[in-house]
Amino acid sequence: MLKSTNIVNLTSSMASHAAQRHAVIAENIANSDTPNYKAKDLQPFADVYKAALQKGDDVTGVEFRTIESNMGDTTSPNGNSVSLEDQMMRSAQTQNDHAMALMVYKKSLSLMKMAIGKNL
Length: 120
What we know:
The chain has one domain (1-114). A two-stranded antiparallel ribbon has the order 1-2. It has helices spanning 6-30, 45-55, 84-115, and strands at residues 40-42, 66-68. 57% of the residues lie in helices and 5% in strands. It is mainly alpha-helical.
């Protein structure tokens, strides 16, 4: 009998992280002209997952912290640190992360169906 659905929980958390990161990126883009606005990002999923494993916690339900984005010396004269090019790159990366999470989730469900003898 299947006792653990860790892969399903993990992919669900990965998809949730990607969705939350996309919201932070959208907020950054919306504030790209706001004086003194500092770009934000989420703590990388790998770091959150690693910390949860070290504590022995399940990654499901973990809150992802928003951190100030490290942009180097790209602050504009009005103090805004949002680079639209960087945000577009992060958005594409986040979309790929979300697509990967959904693909792994879908494949995991297919394997479970195959294991119980359901036709795919």
